[in-house]
Amino acid sequence: MKVSEVLQRRYSVRGYRSDPVPEELIREVFDIARLSPSGTNTQPWHISVVSGDACDRLRHELCELFDAGEPAKRGFPGGAPVDGVYLDRRRACGFGYYETMGVERKDKEGRVRIARKNFELFGAPHAAFFSMPRSFGYPQAVDMGLILQAVMLVMYEKGLGCIAQGSLADYPDPVRAIANVPDDNEIMFGVSFGYEDMDAHINTVRMTRAALDDVVSFTS
User: Fold this and answer.
1) Over pLDDT 90: what percentage of the chain?
2) Residue 10 confidence (pLDDT)
3) How many domains does the chain divide into?
4) What pTM does this model have?
5) Per the domain annotation, does 80 fall within a domain?
6) Is the separation of the CB atoms in 93 and 159 below 8 Å?
7) Which domain holds residue 134?
8) How far is CA 9 from CA 34, 59, 72, in A?
9) CATH number of the domain where residue 14 is located
10) Cα 138 to Cα 128: distance, rounded to the nearest angstrom
11) Is residue 46 scored above 90 in pLDDT?
12) What are the backbone dihedrals phi and psi of residue 100, each rounded to the nearest 5 degrees, phi first?
């Protein structure tokens, strides 16, 4: 499968079958993705994969914190507020998601229920937490994006569904207690993954992309 085909076909999967992915396949995905480039070959990433009982315990603890209204406790600060066309795209993403799931904009409880699915890991049997040393900054964050993209593309090639989630950095304490995160690292984001549930209505959600001329300029 060509990279161009993967980019045109893949989408974020938000509903999974419960059957686990064989460990050898998981290892193969990350073994390929680790070949991603990085600035001066720093390879700043560490990826902590949780499965089985560990994943179920973590899912439960994350949901408990979310249900209790605990504020996010990110190791790395979140981004600045967005406005203009970027805010328009974010709103279109959220409202399109809610509409697909039959949740109206004014339905606050329904929107909270949808948001909770992030901490349920969307029912996925596996999750991976991406971290880097807390002393690192912008250049290494770019590298983290490179390996994230590589993981997502390889997963699609291997027949797996996945979804990248910034929200999985919100509650690092239970992640540290259960997953193998280096002491000097902070979590940047996570990925829930597994075999897609083809009957899950939530997997009909699709997001659009801006037109080429809106995001790329050409000068000669």
Assistant:
1) 92
2) 96
3) 1
4) 0.95
5) no
6) no
7) 3-70+119-198
8) 23, 29, 33
9) 3.40.109.10
10) 21
11) yes
12) -60, -35
